[in-house]
Amino acid sequence: MQASSDLSLLTLLIDASIPVQLVMLILLGISILSWTYIFSKRAALKRANDQTRRFEDDFWAGGDLSVLQQAIATRRSEHGALARIFDAGMTEFIKARRSNGGGDAMLDGPRRAMRATYQREMDSLESHLNFLASAGSVSPYIGLLGTVWGIMHAFMGLSSMQQATLAAVAPGIAEALIATAIGLFAAIPAVVAYNRYTNEIDRLSIRFDSFIDEFLNILQRQVR
């Protein structure tokens, strides 16, 4: 559609009624925030997967766990979530061993420390996912609200005309439908990203859970 046409996209946006323009601005803001979180979360999850893979390689290489723990403790932010979970558990285990603890009771502290760190890391990974879920579910309805208002406004304008024609009602209906289109444009990427990132976070969660159980088994063999 040419820009000079009466039904060009720019013309429809400019000539839209104030409520419809307000709906469009809200949807535009939701879309911008959604894409911001989509890109930032994509980078965060890629970094988390890479850091988890590197730590697993280091951990299962068979080196001294105390040396690995010291290396992680100096630069915790660079080693990732799983490394911080390991660091929390290893730190508590060392404290319990120095306090002359014995038996399975020595594992209670490391278990609680790793679970607490695990929960904090999962909360961090899941940040902003609620916004994507809300954007995906709410945006179409916001767009529909703009569409209903625009169509109602267009038909109300026909009441002052002696002869209603398609040319007279088309611009109002077209501007109203744009609100629905913008709502879908904001909702679809948010839903796709939410589903994909939730699946990736679930896979990371399973890896973290499995590591905690395996690491506790290793510590249990050391206290026997």
Task: Please explain how this structure is put together.
One of its GO terms (cellular component) is plasma membrane. Keywords: Cell cycle, Cell division, Cell inner membrane, Cell membrane, Membrane, Transmembrane, Transmembrane helix. Belongs to the ExbB/TolQ family. The Tol-Pal system is composed of five core proteins: the inner membrane proteins TolA, TolQ and TolR, the periplasmic protein TolB and the outer membrane protein Pal. They form a network linking the inner and outer membranes and the peptidoglycan layer. By secondary structure, this protein is mostly helical. It has helices at residues 9-15, 18-59, 65-74, 76-79, 81-98, 108-125, 129-158, 166-223. Mean pLDDT is 85; it is low at 1-5.
Question: Could you give a quick summary of the protein structure above?
Answer:
The protein has 224 residues and is an all-alpha fold. The chain has eight helices and no strands.
Give keywords:
rod-shaped; 224 residues; 83% helix; mainly alpha
Q: Roughly what fraction of the amino acids lie in strands?
A: under 5%
| Helix percentage | over 70%
Structural domain tally? 1
Please provide the ordered H/E string of secondary-structure elements.
HHHHHHHH
Number of helices: 8
The rough form would be described as rod-shaped
Layout of strands and helices, then pairs:
Layout lengths: L8 H7 L2 H42 L5 H10 L1 H4 L1 H18 L9 H18 L3 H30 L7 H58 L1
